[in-house]
Amino acid sequence: MKFIDEARIEVIAGSGGNGCASFCREKFRPFGGPDGGDGGKGGSIWAIADRNVNTLVDYRYSKMHRAKDGESGRGSDCYGKGADDIYLRMPVGTLIIDEVNGDIIADMTEHGQTELLALGGEGGWGNIHFKTSTNRAPRQKTEGKEGMRRELRLELKVLADVGLLGMPNAGKSTFITAVSNAKPKIADYPFTTLHPNLGVVRVSHEKSFVIADIPGLIEGAAEGAGLGHQFLRHLQRTGLLLHIVDLAPFEDAADPVKEAKALVKELKKYDEALVDKPRWLVLNKLDVIPEAERAKRVKDFVKKFGFKGPVFEISALSHEGTQELVNAIYMHLEQVKHSEQRAEETQMTEEARGISSIDPDDPRFKILD
Questions:
Q1: Nearest to 169 by CA among 148, 153, 193
Q2: What residues does GTP bind to (predicted)?
Q3: Per-residue pLDDT tens digits for 74-109
Q4: What's the chain's average pLDDT?
Q5: DSSP 3-state assignment of 100?
Q6: Binding site for Mg(2+): residue ranges?
Q7: Boundaries of CATH 2.70.210.12 in the chain?
Q8: Which residue of 125, 277, 320, 323 is surrounded by the most CB atoms within 10 Å?
């Protein structure tokens, strides 16, 4: 299936049915009074996150979604039937934005999460509601309210624990193939990867994490150059970035240090938060470098690049060093998870202490006799 991570749609909720102005005409009831029923409620449109949906391709070709109107009321106290709601299933990680004012309507981050996109109109009142002691034959009725109408932009940000970052042909697709169940296209030319690939990395039978590979970035990506600029948003949800660098480029004129610095610069232009994320340096393609030159080349690169974080040396093609990197990633993710859990528990404890520290002598909490 073709990966689609952005779409524009229009949602139109149903309008409410009109109320009815009617009077009872039964035999032996000459003054039966008003009996006009209310109109039914228009159908609303909801979004529901579904982990079984992986792309927005359905919304690329189906742009308008309209709910039915509610039925109008009728005589004999018959109320109009309300219209059924419509549920639009979207991938987990979809961001729903109002196209007119740019407001974020919903961020679908959990399976089963349901958010209202367009509210259906309320049904109108029949004349039965306007009966009073002084107005026994009301002819008033109200019309149903119009349903909400919205133009929306859907953006899919894949939910992954780890994101791969690198220039074209750095070996990202080879790496994700080596460590996960993903099978992206691999070739010896730039921009082989045309859409993000997700892979599940299994450390053991019960231990795993998700890794995302996006198309390679080039200088000027933040302004729209190349392909990767379309998918930089997918790195915003990841907890760890792996900056993969090709230490043995095909072109002798290519400078790995210059390319690595240019890539970090593009990240900063796109989103400052991406630069602040935990980022590890992964030096790839060591299998094509003579063993006698590896240590010096790695040392020179790290020194010129000025990188202070963790550095890993691998060969994605021969799987050299990949298992050590996978184990380190999993340990890091577990530490972050435990830290967040401890912080949450601490916050709950402090809130509980705040509730229990109420002064019984405070006049605001005195019980009146």
A1: 193
A2: 166-173, 191-195, 213-216, 284-287, 315-317
A3: 888 889 999 999 999 998 888 899 998 888 899 888
A4: 81
A5: coil
A6: 173, 193
A7: 6-156
A8: 125
Assigned CATH for 6-156: 2.70.210.12
Residues 6+ apart with CB under 8 A from 117: 11, 44, 45, 46, 47, 88, 96, 105, 106, 150, 152
The answer to whether the Cα torsion of 328, 330, 331, 335 is positive or negative is: positive
Name the segment(s) of the chain with CATH classification 3.40.50.300: 162-333
Residues making up the annotated binding site for GTP are 166-173, 191-195, 213-216, 284-287, 315-317
Residue type, 95: L
Buried residues in 258-274 as b, exposed as e (16+ CB within 10 A)? ebbebbbebbebbeeeb
Q: Quick one: tokens of 240?
A: 């760890």
In this prediction the pTM is: 0.64
User: What are the distances in angstroms from CA 9 to CA 12, 57, 92, 106, 157?
Assistant: 10, 12, 18, 15, 17
Element (H, E) at 59: helix 57-61
Question: What letter represents residue 80's amino acid?
Answer: G
Q: Which fold has domain 162-333?
A: Rossmann fold (3.40.50)
